[in-house]
């Protein structure tokens, strides 16, 4: 999981074992990620679990998240459960591995600002010297 520094986070993951899944979850800023927090109690989440609703499934790796990205609200933010989008703001995001036969683990967590990604642009300006302004050669030998 990488904070791209432009209002987005990219998550790169590999396939989990059958019955296991990877979860990207957003919590309020200042909240600590824990393997004991059910993903549905976060502000939003997505998972690789194929038995989850389509709106809760994580995009193929690498997956990028920013404000406006489609995610699932499990009802943890006081909103009704269902499909939603990430609102611009500061979050503590968690990457979890959910095991079918072992205790869950926090793979990584970080505080990030998710917002509208602004592409980096650059401009080049060219000018032409006037014809009456000759350039002397640098070497005449």
Largest β sheet strand count, sense and barrel closure:
4 strands, antiparallel
**How far is the N terminus from the C terminus?**
60 Å
Helix content: under 10%
Task: Report the principal-axis shape.
Answer: globular
Q: Enumerate how many helices there are, as a single number.
A: 0
* N to C succession of SSEs: EEEEEEEEE
Strands, count: 9
Question: Structural class, judged by helices and strands?
Answer: mainly beta
| Integer tally of domains | 1
> Which band does the percent of strand residues land in?
25-35%
What ranges have pLDDT less than 50 throughout 5 or more consecutive residues? none
Reading side by side through the largest sheet, how are the strands ordered? 4-3-8-9
| Average predicted confidence as pLDDT | 84
Write down the Rg.
23 Å
